[in-house]
Amino acid sequence: MSDALINGLAGAGGGIVAQLLTYPLQTVNARQQTERDPSKPAFKDGAVRQLCLVVQNEGWERLYGGLAPSLVGTAASQGVYYFFYQIFRSRAEAASLRRSIRGIGDGSVGMFQSLTVAALSGCVNVLLTNPIWVVVTRMQTHRKANKQQGPQDQGLTSALDKALQPAPVENVPHKTINVIQDLYKEAGAFGFWKGVIPALIMVSNPAIQFMLYETLLKKLKKRRASNFKGAQGLTAIEVFLLGAVAKLGATLVTYPLLVVKARLQAKQMIDDDKRHRYKGTRSAIIRVF
User: I need a labelling partner for 78 at 20 to 30 A (CA). Which of 37, 72, 222, 245 fits?
Assistant: First the structure.
């Protein structure tokens, strides 16, 4: 088995585990990103409140809406990324070795080359898997009609809770095939690549994360120079925390692009309000502002 295939399978497996653990939060996140009416609760409430509202009004299963295509997308995305990363990395290493034979460089792959390899792999991944994520976003943001309440439940529901509940939505079958058909009718084949431009720009996220991680690691190694261990002295928890902080910083920088991408991928025809329809990335950014 080739190194590229091994890396692809390992990345896919890890991605699936992470997706299963965090999916309810991803569903809430997608709903908050795509809510366009500032007067509605989804625009104002925090993640915990949103989780409670989804469970109360639509049932636990809605927290996992679109899970099946999401797992397929995660496996495909991680697999494609690591597969092409290994291919591009091997070519970069071979090119560096050829240059070193000619007396240029030491034969190692530098930071800029590594970031280029990661960016190219990310672009290929986005172009190949974007249709899956459009379907997932639409399934996550689909709202079922509120669950029916008995007379005693209605009497216990306060006016405040009623005001915070999202408006009922038509309770129609919303399976993967329904979403695909609906998307094709709405925008044709090109509809499956909605949000691809911000997604391509989002490829910079790992590069930002990598630079932040390396910066934090160097500072930590400098503080630990006296123990002569350097990075080898880091515990698994410390490595996890460094990675988490670096990812947090990268996410804060690129988050606006995630909002734009999610809004482009969500269903556009909302209450026939032209303010809620986006023709493209530029249109979405302007209308959000």
Answer: 245
> How many residues are present in the chain?
289
CA distances from 10 to 6, 14, 39, 133 (A): 6, 6, 44, 21
Question: CATH number of the domain that 14 lies in?
Answer: 1.50.40.10
Q: Which two tokens stand for residue 78?
A: 């991680």
Per-residue pLDDT tens over the stretch 13-67: 887 888 888 888 888 888 888 877 666 655 566 778 888 888 888 888 888 888 8
| 199 shares its domain with 184 | no
d(CA 41, CA 213): 36
Show the domain range for 62.
Answer: 1-149+163-193
Question: How many whole angstroms separate alpha carbon 277 and alpha carbon 42?
Answer: 19
Nearest to 142 by CA among 160, 166, 163: 166
Q: Are 88 and 120 in contact (CB under 8 A)?
A: yes
SS3 of residue 268 by DSSP:
coil
Q: Is 0.90 surpassed by the pTM of this model?
A: no
| Whole-number Cα distances in Å, 63 to 133, 171, 259 | 16, 16, 19
48 and 69 share a domain? yes
Tokens found for residue 98: 């050829």
